[in-house]
Design goal:
With about 220 residues, the chain is mainly β. It starts with a helix and ends in a 9-residue tail after the last strand.
Amino acid sequence: MRAKILPLLLLLAAMPVAALAQGPPPRSAVAEFWFDPTQLPAFTGTVERYLINPRGETDALLFREGPQIVFPPEFGDAVRQAAAPGRPIIVWGIRARHAPVITVLAFAPSDEAAPVVVERVYWRQLGRAPAEQAESLSVSGTVKTPYYTPQGEVAGAVLEDGTVITVPPGGVEPFRHLLRRGARLAAEGRGVASDAGRALAAERLGETADALRPVPRPAPRQP
């Protein structure tokens, strides 16, 4: 399997810049793309719920069977249309080595449907920043699962009610014990709350609302 996947990863690394740029979601079938992403491993599961990020964009879902599935936010509507919560979906992509998270390169609602190709590989950064119009939120609950980057690094938590709490790079380690499945977690930060769900970029974290501590912020990049 490793020998088969390596050439495909080399193809991805050579993907033209234009294919990596953001833009409206292409609805290409596999036959219209320059390589067949369905040669990659296929993962079939039932959509438990969709996840939004602190900007209010749908860029992930949880399989009822466990894995977290990530895709570019401009494909959020297309993925939702392909499979509502409680329905199966097939995704082709790359699974992180040490965590149950899959980066999507194609998806389809069934074996009979033509796959939709994701032309931008979504290597989402840790702790996606909230939008300027984000509101202050306070949330608490039980952690359903850690929230992962596509590389499999812990970047926050998903609560049992689907609330997404992201933590910036460098801020995870002091709170790692609170980001595990079954842990009690409270958070304050800026984000969004809508019919699509809740998500915030944590500024303070703790086991309860009375025990919140500031989340370390990443050091500014040197010019």
